[in-house]
Write a structure and sequence with these properties.
Elements (H helix, E strand, L loop, with lengths): L4 E3 L1 H30 L10 H26 E3 L15 E6 L6 E6 L10 E3 L3 H6 L7 E6 L2 E11 L3 H4 L3
Parallel strand pairs: 1-2, 4-5
Antiparallel strand pairs: 3-4, 3-7, 6-7
Helix pairs in contact: 1-2
Length: 168
């Protein structure tokens, strides 16, 4: 992987939690293998759906763990800005609106695949995050969401407030 993976300190902690969750799921599937093997015919593979499904899940989870661990090894952690930045940067809160909507939205720019709309996190590698990154207040940028080209305007760029920084 030659890609750059940038996180806030909280984002790196969430990545580590994802790794731990994936490892636990892998262990649970491995622990279920003896029961799955006995549930079908004695050959272990032929006509034993439960065992084959366990093997498939093991391979998927092992790949997920490897991929997440590779990202964690290459991760760069940047501090959350403590002053109001001039442009949208990682860890900054941003107020924005789509020009085809009347309502304004708020969120903060989070790390690689660390978005969570319900918590107000916008991953910098998501379509909206890509459009917002580097934009200044008043700037309008194009973003393609679900195959539809839209325009997003940055209203305000702020630093996170004290309580919000715990999640960052």
């Amino acid at each position: 992987m030659s890609q750059r993976f940038v996180y806030t300190p909280g984002g790196l902690n969430r990545l580590r939690e994802r790794i731990a969750t994936a490892r636990a799921a892998y262990k649970a599937v491995c622990d279920d293998n003896p029961a799955a093997l006995e549930s079908g015919d004695t050959s272990g593979w032929h006509d034993n759906f439960a065992f084959e499904e366990n093997q498939r899940q093991m391979h998927q989870l092992a790949r997920l763990v490897r991929d997440l661990e590779a990202v964690a090894v290459q991760a760069t952690v940047v501090p959350v800005p403590r002053h109001e930045p001039e442009r949208v940067i990682l860890g900054a809160k941003v107020s924005y609106r789509f020009l085809d909507e009347a309502s304004e939205r708020r969120g903060w720019l989070a790390g690689w695949e660390d978005g969570d709309p319900e918590r107000g996190r916008i991953s910098y590698n998501s379509p909206v995050g890509v459009a917002l990154t580097g934009a200044e207040p008043g700037e309008t940028r194009d973003v393609r969401i679900g195959g539809v080209l839209r325009q997003v305007e940055v209203m305000e760029v702020l630093c996170l407030e004290e309580g919000e920084c715990a999640d960052a």
